[in-house]
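Lecture 7 notes: from sequence to structure.
We start with the chain below.
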Amino acid sequence: MATQKNNVVTYGLSGKIGDLLVFRQRNGQTIVSKVSEQSKTVSEKQVTQRKRFQQAIVYSKVAVEQPETGERYKAAAKKQGLTAQNVAVADFFEAPSIEHINLTGYTGKAGDKIEVLVSDDFAVKTVRVQIINADGTMVEDGEAVPNGSVLWVYTATQNNQSLDGDKIVVSATDLPGNVTEEESSL
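Predicted structure tokens for the same chain:
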């Protein structure tokens, strides 16, 4: 792939020339590449990926039109030299990552803190924490609050008498609705 800047001959040129070259415009540059070859047979993985890409395009169009998300995507796009739709499509494909669940501040008392480090390629929307007893009964379920860019803090609201065998389930959601879940035992 070749890139041209301010070339008088190719300036503003876009489209396909025969089965040899494709010209595209991106950020004021003319990009030249050879025509890609496409196979006649389509695998099941390709069909699945194409459907996901269609979903990503639909999401990006809707998200960019929404006042709050659109402005966030546009601001990020401007910094990266991309379009807001490009950033939204990339965000659609990347789920949040739960890096660490810190249970040292949780002793089973109301007011105890559970800290969760969560990151995403764009933004984390919500972090939900569930505390479940060993017998499967729910002690409590609620949302953590952000405390910085990647730290989320959940404050327990219920006293939990027995921590033996209990588990903490954390789920993180990003703007497109991708969910990552992680479980930690006490």
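Points to note: The chain has a mean pLDDT of 90. The CA atoms of residues 125 and 175 lie 6 Å apart.
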